[in-house]
Amino acid sequence: MCLGIPGQIVKITDETRLMALADVSGVRREVSVACVATPDLSDLVGEWVLIHVGFAMSLIDEDEAAKTLEALRGLGEAQETLEAMADGAAALEGSQ
Amino acid sequence: MRYVEEFRDPIAARGVLAAIGKVVDQIGATAENPVHIMEICGGHTHAIFRYGLDRLTPPGIEFIHGPGCPVCVLPMSRIDECVDIAERPEVIFTTFGDAMRVPGTRKSLMQAKADGADIRMVYSPLDALEIARRNPDREVVFFGLGFETTTPSTALSIQQAAREELKNFSVFCNHITVPPPIKALLDDPHMVLDGFVGPGHVSMVIGTHPYDFIAQLYGKPIVVAGFEPLDLLQSVLMVLEQIRDGRAEVENQYARIVPEHGNPVSLAAIADVYEPRPSFEWRGLGEIDASGLRIRPAYAAYDAEEKFGVGYGAGPRIVSEPEGCACGQVMTGRIKPTGCPQYGTGCTPEMPLGALMVSSEGACAAYYQYGATEDAVTEAVQ
Ligand code: SF4
């Protein structure tokens, strides 16, 4: 929850609500890009971001993303975050 | 040097460790007379134990584990209030999974769920918003907790709910801020603190200036750090160099992520939705002035405390801690986790008694998980 996880923006899903699809270690999830929004949102596609509880909080470069992910794996936090994302998806269906 | 091999760059780590050893000698710090460095962030606590940094660094450095794990500092009364809200039949209570096992006086959220309350673990407040959209006949409450890293997410979610005029979404706000507890610890005459390693991701939101008082008013160094092991070692070195040189400054080791002035969009959302509470209770530390946030009256429709009449303002508050628990003493660095009589017996990660055992960012759980041995850790700080 406290540490962000790197993800790559795949596409913009909702211009008005500032939402985008991100790829986080192979898992796709919708995130808010409000905190990193650019005048033309499509500029974000392909960018790496640090994602905290579903919000892209900072733009990072690819090398930083790789290093951060490795550090998160070392702490077991990467797995925990991916499980939390799966929990979130199940919660929408009410199937926990 | 058992753990150095695990580093991404072991050679660089050896270099920094050698430099740390040199500065510790220059300061004249020893095991009997160590420098006390507090890592504020729970993520850092976890990394220190995971990589054995406390054992790799010279005995002249004593790490004090700070209050920077939001799950660990949640008071029992707030968990009780969560359970009260969650047990209402109309409510779908949504929370980060980390909070499920925190003990309350009656039960944890996990137990409440087992007893039939509709409690759902979500990854993001955005999930809670979506559940509200899909269940217009239910009241969806999100358990908002965390420091400045997660505060923008609930602020932006509340703003979004307001734009959509969602009537069935609210936040039970337990957001807390990093600087006030640091001030409280610095004001505590029993605390011995020589410098700080500052939180990286919190600072990404708030920038580095909120820590100016630590250097300017209290004359202590603070270095904002990333959470890779090498980041941490470098930051410890920077703190030590300041101590050696008699400097007290706010330095930023994590400048690649942390802008000096923080993230403007996040700060604007926080300021729009939240205001400081007069005080807020921290498990083990008690009430701390202006350390928590509440939802501004303009957004009262999204405030679960208002909606359900629970929490601050709803009556006198009882501060309770679990029987026999030494969380407060651990949290203020007075004893090590192993000094608590419940450690490993009455309190384990499977059956936590105190909140420091609940999350891997809590000092007790980190000790337990990475097998800190009795002999290395029983000495009290004072
Ligand atoms: S061992 Fe358990 S009860 Fe004791 S201080 Fe740690 S968390 Fe609290």
TrEMBL record, chain A:
GO terms for molecular function: carbon dioxide binding; iron ion binding. GO terms for biological process: protein maturation. PANTHER family: HYDROGENASE MATURATION FACTOR HYBG. It comes from the Bacteria. Involved in the maturation of [NiFe] hydrogenases. Involved in the biosynthesis of the Fe(CN)(2)CO cofactor. This is Hydrogenase maturation factor HypC. Coiled coil: none annotated. It holds the Pfam family HupF_HypC. InterPro entries: Hydgase_assmbl_chp_CS, Hydrogenase_HupF/HypC. It comes from Mameliella alba. The lineage of its organism: Bacteria, Pseudomonadati, Pseudomonadota, Alphaproteobacteria, Rhodobacterales. Belongs to the HupF/HypC family.
